[in-house]
Amino acid sequence: MSTALPLPNSRRVHGMLLVNLIILIVGGCVQAYLTRPVPRDINSAVPELRPEQVGLPAMHEITDVSRFDILRQPQNISPKLYIDSWPALKQVFALQQDESSTKQIEQTLNKLIDTADRYGVLNLQAQRSRQSVDRDTAERLIQECIDAEPDQHLHHFQSALLSFDKLTDTRNPIAKWGYSNAVLSAYERAFALEPKIRAYRYYLVFAYQQTPQGFGGNPKRALNLATEAINFDPAFFLVRTHLYLLRDEIDDAFDDMDRAIASGFYKTTTLHDAIRAALQREDYGRAKRWAAYTIGVHSRWPDNWVLTARVLYASGQHSNALRCIEHALKLDPQHIDAQQLKSSWKNNAND
């Protein structure tokens, strides 16, 4: 006698789907923001086009963009942070700069393993293992460091970086949830020990802002963390710009965007969002000035030229807008937005 399997309860199925969806959101939202692609050269053979050639302010009239610090979340602990905590490691980084062999570097690390800098060496070895995708070794080494020196913030930083690598690679929603929590917990511990390190606060701001409030998100805490940091790290003008834009507090966002640029800090995605907000307000003067920054910092990235074209077209400079679109297509002939805008604007001109 056969027995039919019971049909699943529809509410339970819907509930499980909802939970999986939320896990994907929580695990991926911060990752998605912090790992957005960095602009890159696409066709270096295309001659330069300067902002002033398409009706934008000349860069020398605004600022020296060569001094800009492009804000991004680090993927590794910097040599400076290592040397500040373990000065003996300076000789290791000197060997790396001299392009010494891996064998020489390993020999130097082994000589330091039984000194007072032992756990700095193990932390660096964990980082080197992580870079070579030997995550089991990295995890074992960094856990030994944390067990021995729980008050050393760089151990928790390395743990966060390792968990973030795993978060980036996995597609399993339950695993994403676990790794996301591990990253957040490690950064919270590192931040509690050393609150002035930019990377810790930067990650926490976006984690608290992007995560749904029922799952650990706290937009108010995110804004407070960014505001607290401005007195000692003006990069957080740029971070707070992003938060104000999300809160639709546009005047405050625009003020902070100008302060960030004046302080020499830049993030493409945040500036693009600010330019779009300026366009919605028909604040074309500000939009053009900010568009000139995007070109000055990343002159060979087609997306910057497409957004600049939108600014110019909206302000009535149609011929300059088309010139920007044509330049974007020289850099990337397959750029879909540029193709569509060129076709649309030419059709409008023929109407």
Précis, in short:
The chain is an all-alpha fold. The chain has 17 helices and two strands.
Fold and architecture overview:
The protein contains 17 helices and two strands. The N and C termini lie far apart (about 75 Å). It is globular. α5 packs antiparallel against α6 and α15 runs antiparallel to α16. A two-stranded parallel ribbon has the order 1-2. The protein has a domain of about 110 residues: Alpha Horseshoe (Serine Threonine Protein Phosphatase 5, Tetratricopeptide repeat), CATH 1.25.40.10. It has about 350 residues and is mostly helical.
Quick one: CATH superfamily of the domain at 46-68 and 264-351? Tetratricopeptide repeat domain
Count of helical regions: 17
Rg (CA only): 24 Å
Q: Assign the CATH topology of the domain at 46-68 and 264-351.
A: Serine Threonine Protein Phosphatase 5, Tetratricopeptide repeat
Backbone shape? globular
Structural class: mainly alpha
Q: Which strand order does the major sheet show?
A: 1-2
Q: What is the name of the CATH architecture of the domain at 46-68 and 264-351?
A: Alpha Horseshoe
Keywords:
17 helices, mainly alpha, 351 residues, single chain, Serine Threonine Protein Phosphatase 5, Tetratricopeptide repeat, 1% strand, disordered N terminus
